[in-house]
Amino acid sequence: MSFKTKINLVRRKITRSLTQNIGSTKWNNDPNAAVEFKQLLISRPNHRLGNLLMITPLVQEINAAFPDCKIDLFVKGGLVPVIFKNYPSVQEYIILPRKPFKELVKYFMVWYKIKRKKYDLVINIDKGSSSGRLSTQFANANFKFFGELNDEIVQEYADYKHMAKYPVYEFRYYLKKFHFYICNRSQMLYFGLVEYFL
Question: Which of 43, 136, 152, 173 is deepest in the core (most CB within 10 A)?
């Protein structure tokens, strides 16, 4: 293992330990409150193709529930515009540079983009992602899902560990709290896509 690799491993371990307790899911538990998401941020700052593809079921689920909702994606890498080019609801790509210390200005501009916008909901896909938790905490939003494990979801779904399924289960769980239910057509659509990638 090279010295650079060792340094990166230590850096990741320290960053995760510092950010693991940042934020907790923020939502209004008033069952009579009107739920309508028009502007949404999904946080998945990872450049790997597989991890980016795992976002698509959640985007489909949001589109089915709120057809007029506009979605911003906080990610890494240049593949995202290609993956989501056929998703008209995806409005803006907020792309974190892969080497922030070499692109400091670009790095800070990314965080400014997140802060300047008002979102109805922010969803962090990966609870273990330091940048994901920080961006969710930093964003200006009425509702925030940090992706922490929910006992009710864990007990109900044996496949909750699947990275593409858990965010959808979480999204549905909180919508049910507002007595908002999603049609079965959407359920068939996203599970068909997930099974394709298994």
Answer: 43
- Using alpha carbons, select from 191, 175, 57, 180 the residue that is nearest to residue 125: 57
Q: Is the dihedral of CA 7, 12, 15, 18 positive or negative?
A: negative
* Best CA proximity match to 174, nearest among 53, 21, 24, 27: 27
pLDDT tens per residue, range 34-89: 667 899 999 998 888 888 999 999 999 999 989 999 999 999 888 899 999 999 99
- Structural domains of the chain ordered from first start: 35-197 (3.40.50.2000)
Question: How is 63-130 classified by DSSP, letter by letter?
Answer: HHH-TT-EEEEEEESS-HHHHTTT-TTEEEEEEE-SSTTT-HHHHHHHHHHHHHSEEEEEEES-TT-H
